[in-house]
């Protein structure tokens, strides 16, 4: 006789994306209610996953008799550097009043943006600071983001300057905001959107575990960012499962990080969790063997 458990109360799916991990906590299902919890992990794996560049080309090797590369004059080098900066700046989205929020990847806590400031003088680094980060999802969060002026402010109309800013300390998932201050006076409100990954059951609104059968979890990535190094851990009644069978989006199938039934399972270190990838706008299916302790009552010792 197989035993069935609905994993609805206190179930948490922890997901690790390179340098940040967060928990998607599932409570008893209620109409129109969603629950989530985000936490930063300073001891997690470092490094930011890099998406493949479809425009990259392989380099060509030159023989010993190849003509040397012409030397650039200082003027030409300066002109080339300015051109590169101009091209780089074109890829930075502008934010501010009546503009969309700044998108932030789930595996980083910083973002770069442009903003038009209406101030009395050309802004410098010492003029700028931020207030506390405000998040509706985490109202008790006490974080003050950093702000760095990138390059010089570009003057426009009288009293207007276009500046490029690097904002750090964006640890909150979901929507958040922070005031931008110029010489202690608020001149703008910076808004951010940091989408995470969402765990859900394949059918219905609750995870269902059956004794002797694999448990399936669907992990969705609703954002335009792809993640190549993702790890996950499922916890129910203080018992962890961190070894999964997952799909592979690579052309060649990979067995790296797949469960090894012959080895004892330990989830104490995140390096032991199964590693997989999830591209942008994609969904990955994770299959795990439920812990046997989930199907027994610790108080009575019976199933």
- Gyration radius (Cα, Å) is 25 Å
Mean pLDDT: 73
- What is the H-and-E element order? EEEEHEEEEEEEEEEEEEEEEE
Largest sheet: 6 strands, antiparallel
Which regions are unreliable across 5 or more consecutive residues at pLDDT < 50? 18-89, 253-257
Distance between the termini: 11 Å
Overall outline: elongated
Helix content: under 10%
For this structure, the quaternary state is single chain
Strand content: 35-45%
Which class best fits the helix and strand makeup? Answer: mainly beta
Tally of alpha and pi helices = 1
How many strands appear in the DSSP assignment? 21
Describe this structure in words.
There is one protein chain. The chain has 303 residues and is mainly beta. The protein has one helix and 21 strands. The protein has one helix spanning 74-90, and strands at residues 4-7, 11-17, 20-26, 37-39, 94-95, 102-103, 110-118, 128-130, 134-135, 146-155, 160-168, 174-182, 185-194, 198-200, 207-210, 215-220, 227-236, 239-241, 245-246, 275-278, 283-288. Strands 2, 3, 4, 17, 18 and 20 form a six-stranded antiparallel sheet that branches. Strands 6, 8, 9, 12 and 13 form a five-stranded mixed sheet that branches. Strands 5-7-11-10 form a four-stranded mixed sheet, with no helix packed on it. The chain is elongated and about 75 Å long. The N and C termini lie close together (11 Å).
């Amino acid at each position: 006789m197989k035993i069935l458990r609905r994993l609805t109360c206190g179930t948490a799916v922890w997901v690790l994306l390179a340098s940040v991990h967060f928990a998607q906590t599932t409570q008893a299902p209620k109409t129109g209610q969603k629950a989530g919890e985000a936490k930063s992990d300073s001891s997690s794996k470092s490094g930011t996953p890099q998406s493949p560049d479809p425009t990259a080309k392989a380099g060509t090797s030159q023989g010993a008799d190849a003509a040397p590369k012409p030397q650039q004059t200082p003027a030409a080098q300066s002109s080339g550097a300015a051109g590169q900066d101009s091209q780089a700046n074109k890829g930075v989205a502008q934010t501010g009043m009546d503009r969309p929020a700044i998108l932030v990847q789930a595996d980083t806590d910083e973002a770069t943006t442009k903003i038009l400031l209406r101030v009395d003088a050309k802004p410098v680094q010492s003029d700028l600071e931020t207030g506390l980060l405000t998040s509706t999802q985490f109202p008790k969060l006490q974080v003050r983001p950093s702000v760095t002026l990138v390059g010089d402010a570009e003057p426009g109309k009288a009293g207007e300057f276009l500046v490029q800013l690097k904002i750090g300390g964006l640890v909150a998932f979901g929507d958040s905001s922070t005031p931008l201050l110029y010489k202690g006076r608020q001149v703008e409100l910076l808004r951010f959107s940091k989408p995470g990954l969402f765990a859900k059951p394949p059918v219905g609104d609750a995870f269902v575990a059956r004794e002797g059968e694999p448990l399936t979890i669907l992990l969705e990535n609703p954002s335009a960012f792809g993640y190549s190094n993702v790890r996950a851990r499922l916890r129910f009644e203080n018992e962890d499962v961190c070894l999964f069978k997952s799909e592979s989006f690579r052309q060649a199938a990979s067995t790296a990080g797949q469960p090894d039934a012959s080895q004892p399972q330990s989830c104490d270190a995140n390096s032991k969790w199964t590693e997989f990838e999830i591209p942008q706008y994609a969904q990955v299916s994770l299959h795990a063997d439920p812990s046997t302790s989930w199907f027994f009552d610790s108080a009575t010792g019976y199933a």
